[in-house]
């Protein structure tokens, strides 16, 4: 049925990968549906008291406050912490090794048969895919956190207007709101309970989350504590501003959708055309490889594609 065995192997690999992905997504959905409480409440049940729960949550995510290390390892640890997931060192090694194995198989099927090039491609694919997946997970978590931030501020405002202190209002958010904001505000409440200053605790939370809107909340609270004023009114105005930012961001994404689709088409079209020609006429590119300049041509083309993607991203991406 298939004259090229690599096509058959590729289809088998794709089917297995899709099956595993479907199974993992189903299990993840069931686990999320069966968990109606925040991670902090779960840690409270497994430990003795809020102090142990606070330490347990930080230990699971491999963080303990503001990380002053400006190193690659410090950046990678902070990236993992901002995903909100628990990744022990053995799990990190196994995950990267699995991605490198996937890269080796894909490279053998679609790129080259040279062992040295395959190893290099597998390493680049494994580490690059791991970092890209972590960045995507962090981006999704920040998106969910930002959507929850305005309702959480509303809870704090109502609690302050009812006469409760700020620490009680923050603890109320950790009990009433789901993850990820519930656990983060729970850690914030515990840090303040154990004697940390509000500004330092909020800076720690910003390091764990990385959302720009949370940084605005941190700055606003710090300025209010230094100069005075009605904190409830400040937070209420800040919640409205966050909602307006989310609305503007959604409008910008809708307007720039065509440009993003164009970028993806420009990125995928050369590879699709290459493999279509290779499948239809296997010897079509032989003169290029036999000329001795095939690697240079491919490198230049990939560099131009990468440069074009950067230009298009700058055109459709708006910072405000």
TrEMBL record:
InterPro entries: T2SS_GspF_dom, T2SS_GspF_sf. The chain crosses the membrane at residues 6-24, 93-111, 117-136, 261-285, 291-312. Keywords: Cell membrane, Membrane, Transmembrane, Transmembrane helix. Its main location: membrane. The keyword Phosphoprotein does not apply. Residues 153-278 form the Type II secretion system protein GspF domain. It is found in: Cell membrane. Coiled coil: none annotated. It comes from the Bacteria. The keyword Transmembrane helix applies. It is a multi-pass membrane protein. This is Type II secretion system F family protein. It comes from Sulfitobacter aestuariivivens.
